[in-house]
Design goal:
The chain is an alpha/beta fold. The chain is built from 5 helices and 6 strands, in the order αβββββααβαα. It has a 4-stranded mixed sheet. Strands 5-6 form a two-stranded parallel ribbon. A hairpin with a 6-residue loop joins strand 1 and strand 2. The longest helix is centred in the C-terminal third of the chain and has 60 residues, at 148-207. It is elongated, with a radius of gyration of 39 Å. The protein starts with a helix and ends with a helix. 14% of the residues are buried.
């Protein structure tokens, strides 16, 4: 093995080790346990006064987040957990507005029992109501301002539409004006040729 091949192999090994470490890294605020032959981890983050969900290993099989101070889960925070088999999220002060919809949909796909045990703490009208039973009207709607790029495209489209309308009007006016000019030209030709034809006919009549 030459020097270049050795450096390449060493780099690959380091990268692989780094990826494995990242994949199986245990969150500092939680305790982790290997499940042995099942090739996964049990992540216990319960009763840690957590206010947000920590970064979790992708090979998480069991996830315990109960009895914390969690109020919401950011969209996409749990998307990497593709092999979860058990989840516990009860006894958290969940704020059941429209932002909780991501967690509701995720639990519907992953663990119906966990969803049934999650209850809302706020707002007041849905306090202590199971998240599973919330309707769209109760979740409310999130008001989001349009992104700047969307507004830019909107104004560009509006300007293009206005230009198209003005162009159409000008073309229509030009066609109408051109027809009028052509009509006037033909009328003038007819009025100038009329007397000439009459004179020519009278001259021929006298000759006969």
């Amino acid at each position: 093995m030459n020097k270049a091949e050795f450096i390449t192999a060493a780099g690959f090994a380091i990268s692989l080790l780094f990826c494995m470490t990242q994949t199986e890294a245990c969150p500092p605020s939680c305790s982790c346990k290997s499940l042995g032959e099942r090739k996964g981890l049990q992540i216990d983050c319960s009763s840690r006064k957590l206010k947000e969900v920590p970064a979790l290993p992708v090979n998480t099989k069991r996830l315990y987040l109960q009895n914390n101070s969690l109020s919401t889960v950011p969209p996409g925070a749990l998307d990497s957990l593709l092999s979860v088999e058990e989840v516990k999220m009860f006894d958290n002060p969940w704020n059941c507005d429209c932002h909780i919809l991501y967690l509701k949909l995720w639990l519907e796909d992953v663990s119906e029992p966990a969803l049934a045990n999650v209850r809302c703490a706020t707002p007041a009208p849905v306090r202590m109501k199971p998240l599973k039973q919330l309707t769209g009207n109760e979740l409310g709607t999130c008001k989001r301002s349009l992104p700047t790029k969307c507004l830019e495209f909107f104004w560009k489209d509006l300007i293009l539409i206005a230009i198209a309308i003005v162009t159409f009007i000008l073309v229509a006016w030009a066609l109408k004006f051109s027809k009028k000019v052509v009509y006037q030209i033909n009328l003038r030709r007819y009025t100038t040729r009329g007397p000439l034809l009459w004179r020519h006919a009278s001259k021929n009549h006298k000759l006969h």
